[in-house]
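User: Okay, second chain of the day. Same drill as before: sequence in, structure tokens out.
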Amino acid sequence: MDVPPIQVIDLHKYFGALEVLRGINFTVGAGEVVCVIGPSGSGKSTLLRCVNRLEEPTAGRVLIEGIDLTDPDTDVDAVRTRIGMVFQRFNLFPHLTVLRNLTIAQRKVLKRSAEEAGDVAIKMLERVDLSEKAEEFPIRLSGGQQQRVAIARSLCMNPDLMLFDEPTSALDPELVGEVLDVMRKLAEEGMTMMVVTHEMGFARQVCDRMSFIDGGVIVEENTPEDLLMHPQHERTRKFLEAVQHY
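Assistant: Same drill. Structure tokens below.
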């Protein structure tokens, strides 16, 4: 029986007295692209961050390829090497060139030689159409280019799955497409992806499944076509009416 890359079981998360996640059960299968949508403050980014334990779950379990990240005996850093994470704000080192941004983790975590790390970095930059920017510093790149570099940096670690936390929300509208195009290519190549997004058009075209979360619970899950065109819950309908750009 195949073990799903991501399995979340009865996940709860409190910040002080505020319960942000209230018993989430969620699975992403191998090669599946799942988009998580919902209003601000619904808990979707907290859920994503709990998946690789950037946030500590209050209760429940998170399993990555069958390994329980919430087990105190688990080497969380070792499991994280299998997970690529792309943030809203790129998180590139401003004082390092693009190439060094892509090689530093390879050398420190994967113990690759400088030559091997550099070769991998160039290959990943080619995948995101930025090989000519290898010696530039991040400040000289557009926001879209910086986010594509961030995706390439994650790919350098040979992840089994990728997490995206609203990867286009910090970009000017004209730069969104170039990042979504890279994500489309990854989906076509079979990368397992969990994507928190407000880009309904992208979700409709690329995702295998959509989850609408509100108030810390998954209100509705379905195929993009059915969820967007035939929502079953009133809360989903109201949310979709408010984001008319989908």
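The beta strands are 6-15, 18-28, 33-37, 59-64, 67-68, 83-86, 161-165, 192-196, 209-214, 217-222.

User: Thanks, on to the next one.
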